[in-house]
Amino acid sequence: MRHFTSVTQLGNLAEAFAKAFEVKRNPYADQALGRNKTLLMIFFNNSLRTRLSTQKAAMNLGMNVIVLDVNQGAWKLETERGVIMDGDKSEHLLEAIPVMGSYCDIIGVRSFARFESKEADYNEEILNQFIKFSGRPVFSMEAATRHPLQTFADMITIEEYKKCQKPKVVMTWAPHPRALPQAVPNSFAEGLNLTDYEFVITHPHGYELAPEFVGNARVEYDQDKALEGADFVYAKNWAAYNDPNYGKVISTDRSWTVTTAKMALTNNAFFMHCLPVRRNMIVSDDVIESPQSIVIPEAANRVVSAQTVLKEILLSL
Ligand code: CP
Fold it and tell me: Which atom of ligand 1 approaches the CA of 45 most closely?
């Protein structure tokens, strides 16, 4: 593996899970692999889990780590080619990227959808410039359309907690006051389409995801019906994808909040969310604090997913 931008690049899923569980059992077994290798993590957006778990994963592999928050302390970056740079942006990404590449062996990039242009977001313009111009292996720490390290951690968690071979997994939209990207739900759907689980997506009308991510999932507009018999409930908010509402909040209907009454419709399902989560918008206090909530082990598995991927990239150097 050279670049990692999608869970589809994990290859054989059973083998990827086996590698992940081996990393989890023996996190320090590959300390020599990363010796004298440097990971540079570039953040265009905020993070708690991705930043800490990826750094921890790299340290478990013996790597040195440099973190740059682009918006805190770096020169303000221009990202469009052809712009006359007479404004407040002092440096162009086209110089900054190869310079950053010269200081490291592997680059992780977090660059969310900006919701200024659907085309720019869905072409992954920032992430792809890193791939093209850095000269280094690049992995996504959540880009405009996908969050593959999160999805891999989610899938590892489902593998650990599932009580039957083909669990029913329901991804439900839930309300949020701000417009959030589709990266997490896109990526989760992409990952679940790689499995033979029963996979249902439920959301209000107008929140349809891009068809290439929905894949073979069943889309059910009645949330209660979707939740019936679920083994896992994966809650997430996302902004509208379809035009003319791309990137907009078109509903904050709190009847979609995951409550104890909603969870009662399920097969005693486990509750999952990538975090950070807005309590009593996305999920009630009672549900997230219940024994069925596995959001903390899910977040802990972010180290496992990042370490498994970083190890594969190191092996390819
Ligand atoms: N789930 C996730 O990526 O969390 P952060 O945004 O805090 O990194």
Answer: 6
